[in-house]
C-alpha cells in the first residue's frame, strides 16, 4: 500500500502535501467560522461543500496553468540561451566552468568537465537554465497529472472536517465540532507523517509539525467567526 502511494506521488509530493493541507485547513476554517458564528448545520454543509469543490478546482487549475507557464518560460529561455551560446564556444565553456566551480569542483576538474558538458548542447542548456532560473522542462501530461493530484488531494483531505456533520444525526454544530476537530487533527497528522516517506525526517515529527501549522490556522478561523458574530 505504502509502495503504491510512493509510486503515484513521486515527483508530486509538494502538490499532494500542499493541496491536502490546504484542503483540510480551508474546509475546517469554514466549519470553525460557521460554528463560531453560531449558524446551523444546513448552512455549514452548504458552505463547506461549496468551498471544498470551488477551492479545490481553483487550486488545481491554478497549479496546471502555473506549470504550463513555467514550461513556456523554459522553452523561451532555452531558445534565448541557444542564441547566446551559438557563436563563440568559449562563452559556453566559461559559464559551465563557473557553474562547476560553484558546485565545489577544482579549477582543473571544472576545466575538463566544462569541455565535456558543452559538447552535449541539450544537456548543457538544461543544466544552465535550471541553474540560472531554478525551472525545469515539463509537458502537458505532467501539468495535467499535477493538477489531478492537487484536486484529489484537496478533496480527500478537505471532506474530513465535514464527516461528523454528514454522518452524525445531531443538529448541534457545536457538538459535532468536537469530532470535526478530532478528525481534522488526525488528518493533518497523517498528512505530515506521509510527507516523511520522501525524507529522513521522523514520521511523528512531520505529523506534529503539520498538526501545529493547521491548528494555528483553525484557531484563527474560529476566532474570526466568533468575532464577526459579535459585530453583526
UniProtKB/TrEMBL annotation:
Listed name of the protein:
VIT family protein
**Pfam families reported in the protein's UniProt record:** VIT1
One GO term (biological process): intracellular manganese ion homeostasis
- GO MF terms on file? manganese ion transmembrane transporter activity
Q: Report the GO terms under cellular component.
A: endomembrane system
Note the topology in the membrane: Multi-pass membrane protein
Query: In which compartments does the protein localize?
Result: Endomembrane system
Q: Where are the transmembrane segments?
A: 143-165, 177-198, 210-228
Tell me which UniProt keywords the record has, alphabetically: Membrane, Transmembrane, Transmembrane helix
Amino acid at each position: 500500500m505504502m509502495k503504491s502511494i510512493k509510486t503515484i506521488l513521486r515527483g508530486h509530493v509538494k502538490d499532494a502535501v500542499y493541496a491536502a493541507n490546504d484542503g483540510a485547513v480551508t474546509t475546517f476554517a469554514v466549519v470553525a467560522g460557521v460554528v463560531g458564528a453560531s449558524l446551523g448545520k444546513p448552512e455549514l454543509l452548504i458552505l463547506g461543500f461549496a468551498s471544498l469543490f470551488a477551492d479545490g478546482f481553483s487550486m488545481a487549475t491554478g497549479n496546471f496553468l502555473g506549470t504550463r507557464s513555467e514550461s513556456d518560460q523554459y522553452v523561451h529561455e532555452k531558445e534565448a540561451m541557444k542564441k547566446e551560446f551559438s557563436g563563440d564556444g568559449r562563452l559556453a565553456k566559461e559559464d559551465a566552468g563557473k557553474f562547476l566551480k560553484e558546485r565545489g569542483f577544482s579549477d582543473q576538474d571544472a576545466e575538463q568537465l566544462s569541455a565535456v558538458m558543452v559538447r552535449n548542447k541539450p544537456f548543457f542548456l538544461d543544466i544552465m537554465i535550471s541553474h540560472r532560473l531554478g525551472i525545469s522542462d515539463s509537458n502537458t501530461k505532467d501539468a495535467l497529472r499535477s493538477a489531478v493530484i492537487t484536486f484529489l488531494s484537496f478533496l480527500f483531505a478537505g471532506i474530513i472536517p465535514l464527516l461528523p456533520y454528514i454522518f452524525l444525526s445531531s443538529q448541534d454544530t457545536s457538538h459535532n465540532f468536537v469530532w470535526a476537530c478530532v478528525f481534522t487533527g488526525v488528518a493533518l497528522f497523517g498528512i505530515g507523517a506521509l510527507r516523511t516517506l520522501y525524507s529522513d525526517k521522523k514520521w511523528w515529527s512531520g505529523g506534529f509539525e503539520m498538526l501545529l501549522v493547521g491548528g494555528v490556522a483553525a484557531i484563527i478561523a474560529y476566532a474570526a467567526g466568533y468575532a464577526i458574530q459579535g459585530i453583526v
